[in-house]
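Target protein
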Amino acid sequence: MNRPPCHQTPAWAALQAQFEATGKSFDLRQAFAADPGRFAAFSQEAPHVFADLSKNLVDAPTQALLLELARQRGVEQYRDAMFAGEKINRSEGRAAMHFLLRNPAPAQQGRALVAPENIAAGLLQVHETLAAMLAYAEQVRLDEAITDIVNIGIGGSDLGPQMAVLGLDAFRIPGKRFHFVSNVDGQELAGVLARLRPQNTLFLIASKTFTTTETMTNALSAKHWFEAQGGQDIARHFAALTTNVAAAQAFGISTTFGFWDWVGGRYSLWSAIGLPLAISIGAQGFRELLAGAHAMDGHFRTAPLAQNLPVRLGLLDVWYRNFHRFTSRSIAPYSSALRRLPAYLQQLEMESNGKRVDAQGQPLPFATAPVLWGEPGTNGQHAYFQMLHQGTDVVPVEFVAVKKSSHGLPGHHDKLLANVLAQAQALMLGQDDTGGHKHFPGNRPSTFLLLDELIPASLGALIALQEHRVFVSGAIWGINSFDQWGVELGKVLAKDIEPRLRSGNVSGLDASTAGLLQRLR
């Protein structure tokens, strides 16, 4: 799309003027006092998610200008291009069709599929693979001899399935334990293997190319352990989630499930990479996860901008990053089951939008992705919330809460919900104290995302919401949210350094790296 960069649009200039006039001095307490309807105006329903945006530093005129910025930057057209299967990942010449992984099959849609050829063909392949993967998951679920499933992957092949398996632990099949190994540090794998017996273990090797250094190092060590412990039948105890079938077969694996180059790693939970989750919650549960995400896809595709939750969240991120110049956002899930959500969202946002150049490779004159970080509540309250309330930096907080608990322990959930409500309230209201130490400045922004229940459908919707929100801010900034070249340089250099650790050759190295290498030897 031939449109001016975001900082050269009329809406950007108007937003800058709005920030100088009222934005930088905006006070939430005064806003609520002046407008009894503020909660209703700045909250909304989306599939499986209720969002309260009223405690954010934004008013109606600002929101209107942000929506105009989205129009001037062509967010709707860019969104439609993605859903049409166009190659919006230009630096890699690929489409970004992760949404297709949760589309119903044509027969389920009740009509002939009318779509571009690549969409139609892709959807047929998706459902062939999905059916095979879910059938295998059910087979493993029925196999009482398999008590432990070990997923070996890294990045999106680890963070997504691990987060979701933990998040939906209430739906986990009894009698099976799930382990996730990602770090090339052998201590992680050794700690898992020490608790296993080869005859009761299934290893899932998750690597699209079957060449990822960390994953294949761990996979080979797992295979050596399996054989050394008397394990037999690699084909029964190992499966691969990969497109490199030949390499998997050379490893001894005969059961493989693939995915496509239009599926980025951080968007791959919905593909065969989700096999650990499918084993944990079953085929029907996995389909419900997909359905929840698909419902959010539909909302993103069809809701008007002013009532489009991913759009509103993405625009809020731009407002905070580029006008208020907040450098980070804290994710605080008030659900122990969602304890890996902050790590998952770190990769989703920071790998997608942590870019210093636009989609054409030109340097950007403004900031992009904030730092994402956090811990589950109430743990975070006894750690970093001190800084949120009284620190020198303002950090927007995103609370995630669940209305209905998945346990039967009396009293716990009310205390949990009371705490999340109180923290959001305290950040906004603050507290006056002439002594200073007990002074809370308040007026600190937060977003509140509420799920009725933490079930497969609601988790699917929550994740898809976050995916689309990242897409929106990336579209505003004009960057490619679907490549990750920044991951590559360190990998290349590590391949050069590894043999030097054995040989001691420091020729051509900078003085610091050479000195450290010698000490490590």
About this structure: Residues 141 and 279 are 6 Å apart (CA to CA).
